[in-house]
Amino acid sequence: MLCSRVFGIILSCVSLISILISLLTDYWLVxxxxxxxxxxxxxxxxxxxxxxxxxxxxxxxxxxxxxFSTALLLFGMVSAGLSLNNLSVGRITASLLAAMLKxxxxxxxxxxxxxxxxxxxxxxxxxxxxxxxxxYLCWLAVFTLILSGLCNFVAHQTSPTPGYEAV
Length: 167
Prior knowledge:
The protein contains four helices and seven strands; from the N terminus they run αββββαββαβα. With about 170 residues, the chain is an alpha+beta fold. It is a multi-pass membrane protein.
């Protein structure tokens, strides 16, 4: 179904933009207490002075998982674009491949966000730290990826199966 393919591509674009914005901005965690600062996956900024965060530990794991998720999403978007031409190899259609890649991207992004949340939740509940819009934008990307994968899976289910009847 063309409608679900197009809607899947639109949701993929929303996911990609959300992931890229959240990955590149530094408003994941903000401290509103006496030591005002905001931090992301790459740097911590205090009073307009920013310092690079070392990539070890949970920050490095979160970075790697989000970047790998973004790569899977890009491959899924290419596959979703190819599905507009009803491309298939045997019983595997481009829509099914796009759905699988987007579900994998959502899983890796979910794991990355869970790692970050698991390591910072004690600071948020016990201190003056708060999650900010970059963090929530990345969570939004998880849900739009799942919806996009579902749209591609519906497109696969409604596409005609190739076989001898099509010849």
